[in-house]
Amino acid sequence: MDFLGTLPDVPGDDLKIYTGGCDCGAVQVAVRTKPIHDAEIKEDNCSICIRVTLVGQDQTQEYKFGREFNGSPFCRICGVHCFGNLYGPPKDIVARLPEAKQEFVRKQLEVRPLNIRVLDDVEWDKINITWSNEGTGATSCLNETLKNCLDCLLCSLDV
After folding, report:
1. In terms of Cα–Cα distance, which of 117, 151, 109, 156 is closest to 134?
2. Rounded distance between C-alpha atoms, residue 52 and residue 42, angstroms
3. Which of 29, 67, 76, 99 holds its CA 20 to 30 A away from the CA of 6?
4. Mean pLDDT score of the chain, rounded to an integer?
5. pLDDT tens-place string over residues 31-58
6. E strands present in 6-114
7. Which DSSP letter does residue 105 get?
8. What separation in angstroms does the CA of 66 have from each of 6, 137, 152?
9. Which InterPro entries match (predicted)?
10. Full set of structural domains in the chain with CATH
């Protein structure tokens, strides 16, 4: 299927444009990045889980759960999940965090989660996926190495 939107115009050497979308084509994505097999790819244990252009966002229905720090838009027609929305904790709570954690939140909210499974022409045999337990809710609160996930930032506060 041909991408119907404006392709990302991001300067840089050795960048590649990947396009794709949901099964019915109502939601489309395009990302310009270094070859995906050279990019950092993370997979976590989220049950639904750079530089991106989205077409058809109005064709999605967003599902939010838990503290609603994240949104998972699904195509209204075929139900495929192509990208995510990050909202983070409420600003008044973030303001009460230590500066290092405030900066972590700012950087995390600059990320545009993208389901690479919906992209065409991905070099699947070359991809190295990093497994992450970030965002696992209460479980990660018990593990000091995972204290930086957005859902767990509130654990450091008495709220």
Report:
1. 151
2. 16
3. 76
4. 76
5. 888 888 787 776 655 544 445 667 778 8
6. 16-21, 28-33, 41-44, 52-55, 60-64, 70-75, 85-86
7. H
8. 34, 9, 12
9. CENP-V-like (IPR052355), Mss4-like_sf (IPR011057)
10. 16-156 (2.170.150.70)
